[in-house]
Fold this protein.
Amino acid sequence: MIDDRERFLVNEVLQGDILVHGPRAKEFESKFASYTGAPFVTSTSSCTSALHLCYFYLQLGKGDEVIVPAQTHNATAHSVELTDAKPIFVDAELETGNIDITQIENNISEKTKAISVVHYLGMPVDMEKILQIANKYDLKVIEDCALAIGSYYKDKHVGLWGDAGCYSFYPVKHFTTGEGGMLISKHKELVDKITRQKAFGVDRTMTERSIPGMYDVTMLGFNYRMSEIHAAIGIVQLDKIDFFLKTRKENYELLSSLLREIPEISQFKSTEGDFKSSYYCHSILLEEKLVSKRIEIVEYFKKNGVGTSIYYPRPVPHFTYYKNKYGYSENSFPNASKISYSSIALPVGPHLNLEDMQFIIKILKEAIVEVKK
């Protein structure tokens, strides 16, 4: 949902003389810090790069392990793999799709260094329980908040409970920068160091150099920066976030209410008490008799102009790379498997309205009747 406000600010950047390490990235970081309540932030080229920077900062390597949810995007695990550490996958809970906290301790070993937490589809994890485990075993906690901008646990924005939180601004997220990410933390030293590591480990940016071209490299680093163009888009998009989230919530709540009339599907828990979701999408689970008809239902939606998706097509350990490397069987992680193989994600984004939600329900009911013939 891009309009002339984003175009104007991007054009202003293009008419200027700096495209990287400039004032727009700083402004975007400041606005994001204000929105989340984060004391320290740094922008990145993506959520994946932010996650990778976290594990690189922790100096993970061969022989180290990180607890990772089986039900997530593969980037959550890839960022661990990129350090040569090993992701130890834990199954999901069916009620929310989040990591099953009761299974975490059984998967902790003397090699475990951190717990990766993903707020699945924007539903916050019980972070107090996570931190109890982390404190007990002296583990770091990295929050993957790619789908959780606007999610709160006990009135604190997710990403501020653990040691760091990482966000995605990919085009299908709550708001976009075209491509980009953000890392937030309550630890100044972590953000200060990662800010250097995201830019080759150089000790001074161009604007910080008293003599042009003169700098030192004080640490190993990457090219994981956000450009001024991406930051300019983000500045305007962040002004729209309250409207985006309000519309998502209204759409989600109506859709959820109407879905209760359909006995062939079940829903995840969403906002409840201390848990405030960001309503990324509305994923439904089909009853067992309809699972084999899922593709037909998706195609019926598509034929009638309704876009759907799946979050996610397989548990991460069932993807070929992880399956071949670590030898996971198709019978492993039964809850994550059920979610992956029997769910359909329905849209609730701000480009839609309440009439669209009613239309989605109409098409879903028709699809179920059609596939049962």
